[in-house]
Amino acid sequence: MIGRQPALPSILEHSPTRVVFGAGELAHLGASAAELGSARVLLVTDPGIVAAGHVERAVASLQGAKLSVVVFDGVEENPTTEHVAAGLHVAQEGAFDLLVAVGGGSAMDCCKGINILLTNGGQIADYWGTDKTTQALLPMIAVPTTAGTGSEAQSFALICDPKTHQKMACGDRRLPTEGGLRPRVAILDPDLTLSQPQLVAASAGMDALAHAVETAGARNRNDNSRAFSREAWNLLEPSYQRAVRDPSDDEARSMMLLGAHLAGAAIENSMLGAAHACANPLTARCGLTHGLAVGLLLPHVVRFNAAEGGNPYEDLGDGAALAERIEILLDAAGLPRRLSECGVKRESLEMLAEEASRQWTASFNPRPVGRDELFEIYLSALD
Fold it and tell me: Which helix (H) or strand (E) covers residue 158, if one does?
């Protein structure tokens, strides 16, 4: 389906990440890399993206710009310190001056983790938190192939400890031009999302929607984050069902990709909340994909936060109506609405609530949440 491509909103004019947006823009990856003065590139990706042919095209563009390229394709979903270590071994073999991530949030997170250790040494746990790096990081170009995490707009890497299953958020908020972790360039090419399986598109898109919603209500939201949240929601909400139902709807996929980037930028300017805090233990302990878990919990968290006469989501509308709309989108995409549908048992909820209470994002929820409140949210989503 030929459709109108949305224009870049004015809010991105002052973004520290340069956004290149449009169908076919992957072909200009080499030009973007050359503009950064690069000569040797490490490209970080996963086997699925290689199989889809995107890596071959990316490498061709880089080599067409006379750049040397080495590919590390050992990324898996929810990258751990082990994936970062494997990529670091490859990175240490060459004198790279640019990192390129092609893939979803996992590829981008792993690439950022490699960057941190390549330039600063040590272990990922040393950088758990914010601004613990001391040396400038290498410039990075991010090429998302899913409309989901918006990691290409963020200065944080999420890396999992394979033993504790704890997700470690490692951030460096320096500007990209000053050696920070946020990518210098984000290439948003909606053609790359055409190859997504339907379930991947539905799950990733629900993650992006959750980012727009949770940042809109986060405790530390500000004028910038609220503007990004509204712009993101206004693109994602009307296009989600269309994009999942008909992958050939170019306009809907373009709106999803741009909306996911804006929602990622909203996170950078604000934070998330209880839906993400509850989703992470479900991914680590129960094997639910992140987007599925966060989408399932989101209506329950919205209702919890909008109870007692409050509505932290006023920028997006009435809280009750917002929760109902999310449930309609979940149903339209065929995503589960209940934890019991995913094999989660009631006896697991206390353990999940305890782990969720230790998640960083829980502290930004508009209503204070601890283990008891998070247990009640899990319970409301069980059956």
Answer: strand 156-160
pLDDT > 70: percent of the chain? 99
Confidence of residue 1 (pLDDT cuts 50, 70, 90): very low
> Per residue in 53-82, is it b (16+ CB within 10 Å) or e — as a string?
ebbebbbebbeebebebebbbbbeebbbbe
> What does the block give as tokens for 318?
């009435």
**Residue 280 to residues 1, 23, 24, 47, 183, Cα–Cα distance (Å):** 36, 33, 34, 24, 24
The tokens 């080499």 sit on which residue? 30
Q: Are 147 and 253 in contact (CB under 8 A)?
A: yes
pLDDT in tens, 172-197: 999 999 999 999 999 999 999 998 88
Residue type, 290: H
Convert the pLDDT of each residue in 247-269 to its tens digit. Answer: 999 999 999 999 999 999 999 99
Q: Taking residues 22-32, what's their average pLDDT?
A: 97
Query: Sign of torsion, CA 39 44 47 52?
Result: negative
Other CB atoms within 10 A of residue 212 CB: 29
Residue 38 has pLDDT above 50, yes or no: yes
Cα separation, 194 vs 51, whole angstroms: 14
Residues ≥6 apart with Cβ < 8 Å to 125: 81, 161, 168
CATH number of the domain located at residue range(s) 197-380 in this protein: 1.20.1090.10
Compute the distance between CA of residue 10 and CA of residue 12 in angstroms, rounded to an integer. Answer: 5
Q: 100-104, 275-279, 327-331, 359-363: which has the minimum mean pLDDT?
A: 359-363
Cβ(118)–Cβ(92) under 8 Å?
yes
pLDDT digit string, tens, across residues 120-145: 999 999 999 999 999 999 999 999 99
Contact at 8 Å (CB) between 182 and 213?
Answer: no
Q: So where are the chain's domains?
A: 25-188, 197-380
Structurally, what CATH architecture does the domain formed by 25-188 represent? 3-Layer(aba) Sandwich (3.40)
CB within 8 Å of 338: residues ≥ 6 apart? 296, 381, 382, 383
